[in-house]
Amino acid sequence: MQTYEQSLEQAKQFLLEHDDFLVVSHIQPDGDAVSSTVAVGWLLSCLGKKFTLINEGSIPERMQFLLMSDQIVNMEQNPLERTFQHVICVDCADFGRVGLTERYFDNNAEILNIDHHPTNNGYGSVTLIKPDAAATAEILYDLINISNVTWNQEIATAIYTGLLTDTGGFRYSNTSPKVMAIASKLLDYGVNGPELSEQLLESMTHAQMKVLTKALRSLQMTDDGKISWVCITPQDMIDTGAANEDLEGIVNYPRNIQGVEVGILFKVINDQAVKVSMRSAGKVDVAALAQSFGGGGHVRAAGCKIEGAMETIVPEVIERVRSFL
Ligand code: 5GP
Ligand code: MN
């Protein structure tokens, strides 16, 4: 078993020894996914390497201020014409999370897997996985520090964004002393903390508020008050004009109710599939719960996609949660 320092060194060698990389994060990217993608892009550019940044879909609007975020290819709009031998996956707990971007990987592609999910299954030829890191951006902070490059305000802002969003504004239990120490350094590099909190966590579009209202109207709870959930249907998305990125944070509402152990958001994709987001108050390991449905994540925040109709999936998930209580 190699140490974290050895893994960091190995990842650095992977960057130094190869060239012409494809950098990818998970489908429907969150703050950490986007930050990690651009941070790797920035590091590669400092090292004089060629690279392409890509995601299966678009980058949420509120993150489009990040450096190099305009370079992340949206493959739905701009499909690539070629494949890559060297791929760097960031914040992807399992290989499937890269989505359709997989078609741009050579059949025998060498993959560097950088991630912080405890459920990461270690795919790839080189792995840099730190399950107790608050965000993948925290790992990239360390990788940048051993790479002899000079910090500036823009890259500091990207790393801060990953930390800020994955810790829910430095509030969740993953907010370690190390996270606070890193944040302090990043503020020294010129990061505007309050402005980022406002933009990434506080401010809402009208569509976001409308879809939140719909979700709260659907709120349900088990008789014992330990499980609470909300549902969002395709019709809700049409009625409110909301995009998937507008659903971020809604799952916290059922979880925040006093006495609730597990809060759930059921996002109906269509008649055949439902995306399930789960949040734990602390007792239940929702990563294990989500894994039992083929998903994954963290002990307190996890998700999965389940094939089937909402009418059958909701009771099935609630029953499974009960068995974990
Ligand atoms: P969210 O509920 O915000 O979509 O995701 C919460 C956490 O669970 C994130 O860390 C995310 O990476 C993980 N997660 C969400 N959906 C899936 C999934 O379908 N598969 C896996 N492996 N992880 C997921
Ligand atoms: Mn993350």
UniProtKB/TrEMBL annotation:
Domain DHHA1 per the UniProt entry, residue ranges: 239-322
InterPro entries listed in its UniProt record: DDH_dom, DHH_sf, DHHA1_dom, Oligoribo/pAp-PDE_c-di-AMP_PDE
Gene3D superfamilies (UniProt xref): 3.10.310.30, inorganic pyrophosphatase (n-terminal core)
Top-rank taxon, per record: Bacteria
Positions of the DDH domain: 21-162
One MF annotation (Gene Ontology) recorded for this entry: nucleic acid binding
Spans traversing the lipid bilayer: none
A Pfam family recorded for this sequence: DHHA1
Name under which the protein is recorded: 3'-to-5' oligoribonuclease A
